[in-house]
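Structure tokens please, single chain.
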Amino acid sequence: MRLIIAEKNIAARRIADILSGSEKPGKGTPVRTGKENGVNTYRFEDTVTLGLRGHVVEIDFEPGYSNWRSEVNTPRTLIDAGTIKKPTEKNIVSLIKKLSKKATLVTIATDFDREGELIGKEAFEIVRAANKDVPVQRARFSAITPHEISTAFQDPAEIDFDLAAAGEARQIIDLIWGASLTRFISIAAKRGGKSILSVGRVQSPTLAMIVDREKEIEAFVPKPYWMLSVDTEKDGTPVTARHTTDRFHTKSEAVKAEQNTSAPLVVTSVKEGTRVDRAPAPFDTTSFIVAAGRLHFSAANAMRIAEDLYMNGYVSYPRTDNTIYPKSLDVEDILQQLRKSPLSRAVEWTQAHRRKEPTRGKKSSTDHPPIHPAGAAKKETLTDDQWKIYELIVRRFLATLSPDARWTTLKYLFDAGAETYTATGSRLAEAGYREVYTYSEAKETILPVMNEGDRLPILAVNNEEKFTTPPPRYSQSKLIQRMEELGLGTKSTRHEVIGKLISRRYVEGTPVRPTLVGRGVVEAMENHGVPITNPEMTSTIEQHMEEIKEANLSRDEVISESKTMLRRVFDALEANEEQIGREIMDRNDEERIIGKCPVCEHDLMIRQTRGMSQFIGCTGYPECTFNIGLPSAAWGTAIREDKTCESHGLNFVRLIRKGARPWEIGCPLCNHINSNSEAFRMMPSADEKMVARLHAAHIYSVYEVANVEPERLTTALATDVATVSRLREEANAVLEILRKRSELKKFVRKHVVPRRGRSPAKVAAALVEAGVSDLEGLAAMTPDALTKMHLSAAEAETLLNETRAVYNRAKLREYGVPAVSLKKYFEAGITTPADFCSLHPAYLSVVTGIKPETVWKHATSVCTGMGVAPPEKVTARMVEAGRNDLLQIPGLGEMMLERLYRAGVIDMAGLKDADAGHLAEVTGVTLEKIRAFQDACRENK
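Here you go.
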């Protein structure tokens, strides 16, 4: 049996389809999909293919280092702590071992880069642990296409243990640096749980670059300069010529040049020329991310989509440093494939105008070619974002095969008295690659024809004062370019580093800027000479890891060197631990302050409890109790924004949650007021004037009206005690309605499944709009009414049944029926309060098994609560005596007895005096038979 191990499940499935020949419908050997040990497997002939989930084992510290507060195993001890490998996907590891024992050949088919080689080596070690003798091969490919996969498996290689060692060195170094530094800084700043302060050897210098750029922007002092131009015309076409001195740095110089400018404007020189607009080089990872960034894709999102396209065989491997196509790349075959795509017209143009050789960049590597399309995709099979990235990669590939664009240029020089001016124009003469690469606009500047000696009028002289601008913040793509220049991270990890900075709330926005906490971490370390923010140290480690790849250094040598560097970092950290912790904490507190308390002028601060609750509270507590509620942290963590409210001067707030769009709260006080406006309208006495007075006294909610000291309300409203008392009663009534509405909304959210165009919130809103504010109102509705509120007939019926069960259970508990008995009643079909008042206690007793006296007590309690006359007392002795008498009547058995109980008949006297027609209707027994029973009663008498 042959075992093939791919990096992911989707790759395993595609490799199996390609090798079996079944990728084309009706061809090859069918692939049997199965699940073994909870893992997807793909079998054909004598081959089984399975996918890993990336790393299935991880490196961790030896036992004993998990306690962050340990006085023995301090953060520094992690530098020299032993490491172990442990499985993270036990079912996959177990299955590989099981299949390896039967295998006659194993092929590792993970991605071919440092990380993929390490994942492959991990799989190799699992195989070897189970079978020491089975041959293990390595399949290397740059795209999951039939040609690449077939070639890779026909000509297998060996695992590159040097490349894997470089990946393993990175793994160990990142663990040691990240864990020890994160633990130290978090403890120093008293941060734990989800609020730890992450620090890393690549992350920290990258963050420092962003902070340093922000400081440059803040320190920048704009300097004025002046630009001179003149407006003229030629044959009715307006022309603007600028002064040949690009900038005047003093106003006096600019004014003097302006005064020296006089008509006419004489053409002194005409220069025509051409300019070559070079076609772009092939995509490597960094240039791809930059191009995707111009289409508003984040670095992480662009790479995620590119990897999905790679796994599905549409593009080549997206992690590459190469910008030169290898000679082995079959460009013509790719073009023929692309002719089947919706971009066929661009492909045909490229084939008709193809340049002799593709463009070349400056970087060449032997692992993977530049990013290029690998197969034809159909627009309808991809998401909108996937198509945009696929089209970008296709058009870039076509551009590298297309001719350069060419421009004709025109430059005029003019004399205007004692000053000289110039005007330049350009026209696209040959579009070249721009025909297919449509991501930058070809802006033409067309000038009218002029000749030397032409004299033109001066219609206006423009003397504009301008100011120098600070350096821009980094976009994600520009930041990745800068990281590459400084040797920070790799093509595979740079976008992940930026993603971590964003998720840790060290940076935010587009382009990125540091948060106060991110800035605090960098400044605290820079202020005390901690070298972790310096890129040189990290760059050196990166270079030496490349040396491992080339077998010039060993894994252990580089790890040892990094530990020496890390000890120097800890020397600086430990000498300044208290000051570093204090500085970071101060920044953290500052970031949570949103403005001044409207009551006492202390700071208002975002606060989170150990649970999921969060709110904005006054730092003057307990003297000042002013606070503003926020949605639960389950909806997202509250963070401060830069924008402030014009009315209240408070910073805006938003909620952020991984995998969800931010929830923009805006000004928290405006939001607080707006969210309570409906509740105020529900109070009969609360008109706009009264609400305005309450707001002026910083009373913003109905809850506060119900709970603040009466004296405060009396003063705020300038009214009497009786009015305040009435207002408080109204407020409490509104709060009760809101409580029931909240209960209703939670119930609907629990029982209504979201679907496109219909959310539980929309259903709840429709109910409230229809005047249904609680479960009692919902229970009283009809299915037809509910179907008008975004529900199907089946959903409406189910919701009503669930509602009535919950509502009736709650009412019966309220009326005093204990939970233990309730269970028995519901199992017997006795589910509503009305059942207790309409059915005889004897019947309730016999169907539930509860004693008659207990049932009577429950029925009396329920009927009293409903304002209905309770039933006459019934005892077990009464029921038993009546039962014995009734069973003496010929033809009246146990089943008939239960029917009579349901009709309220428990003895002969009741049977004899009952209305025969009513009894027949309730019991379902014929009228003749009921009358026969009654005659028997009279005879027995």
